Amino acid sequence: MKTTGLFKKSASIAIATLLASMIGCAATSGPAPMRGADVAAPDRAPVIKAYGEKIPGVGQPQLIARTFVGQPPMVSHDVEKYVPITMEENACLDCHITDELLGQKVPKISVSHYSATLKARDGKPAVSMDRFQCDSCHVPQVDAKPLVDNKFVGVTK
Ligand code: HEC
Ligand code: HEC
Asked: Does residue 121 register a pLDDT over 80?
C-alpha cells in the first residue's frame, strides 16, 4: 500500500514537471501559424493569381471533371468580361440559356435552373431567381498549388 502511494506521488510530480516544461516550451517557441506570421503581425496581401484566360467557345472545350454528385460544375473559361452580374445584365445567361450560339456548342443550364413560376419569354426559358447569381455557385479557376495538402478523392457516380 505504502509503496503504491509513494509511486503515485512521484508519478504525479513527474507529470507536473513534464507539463510545466511543455508549457514553458510552448511559451518560448510559440505555435506555428499556417499563415506564416504571428497573429499580431499586420496582414500580408495575398499574392495575386491570374485566372485562366481561355475564351469560351474557342478551341477544344475542356470541361473540368466534376468530383461529386450534385456539384455545380466549375467554370472552364475566363469570366472577367462577364462579371459583375447585375439586374440589367447577365452575360452568362446570354450564352448559357442555349446549347448552341453562332454555331458554337454551349453547355446549357439544366432544367434545375428554370423557374417554376416565371413564364418563358421569346422562346427562352425563364431562370429561377435562386440561380440568377451564377458566380455564387460556379467558380472560375486559377492554376495554383493547393494551400494545404489533402487526400480528397472525388466520387462521381
Ligand atoms: C460567350 C459565351 C459564354 C459566356 C458569356 C459565358 N460562358 Fe460559360 N461556357 C461557354 C462555353 C462555350 C463553354 C464550354 C467550354 C469552353 O468552351 O470553355 C462554357 C463552359 C462553362 C461551364 C462549364 C460547364 C460544365 O458542364 O462543365 C460553366 C459552369 C460556365 N461556363 C459558367 C459560366 C458563367 C458563370 C458565366 C458568367 C460569369 C459564363 N459561363 C459566361 C460559353 C460562355
Ligand atoms: C445555387 C447554385 C447555382 C447557381 C446560382 C447557378 N447554378 Fe448552374 N448548376 C448548379 C448545380 C448544382 C449544377 C449541377 C446539377 C444540375 O445540373 O442542376 C449546375 C449545372 C450547371 C450547368 C451544367 C448543366 C448540365 O446539364 O450539365 C451549367 C452550364 C450551369 N449550371 C450554368 C449556370 C449559369 C449560367 C447560372 C447563372 C444564370 C447558374 N448556373 C447558376 C448550381 C447553380
From this structure: yes
